[in-house]
Amino acid sequence: MHDLDRIASLFTDDTEYISANTGTFRGHGEIMAMMRAFHNSFKELHWKVHTTKETQPDTFLFDFTMEGIKLDGTKVCVDGLEYITVQNEKIMRIEIKNS
Questions:
Q1: Which residues touch 17 (CB under 8 Å, ≥6 apart)?
Q2: Model pTM?
């Protein structure tokens, strides 16, 4: 199973995805369409997670750096904060902020 397929199984039709870089998406279909387009715009893409912590019950903060090379050869390096809220073993909300 591809990594995106594993991630897709964690979303519901009510999951909300908010990103400073890509916009706001709601539901499994919209989120996965955005993720596939985003991933397909890179020939290399990696995340380094620096720290994680639970900021409130069922909400987790990941401090990360995303590095990649776009299809046109442009190198990208972005530092960010990702908040993920989980309920009943499903991701209900993701919010990504640039740091």
A1: 24, 25, 26, 30, 31, 34, 93, 94
A2: 0.90
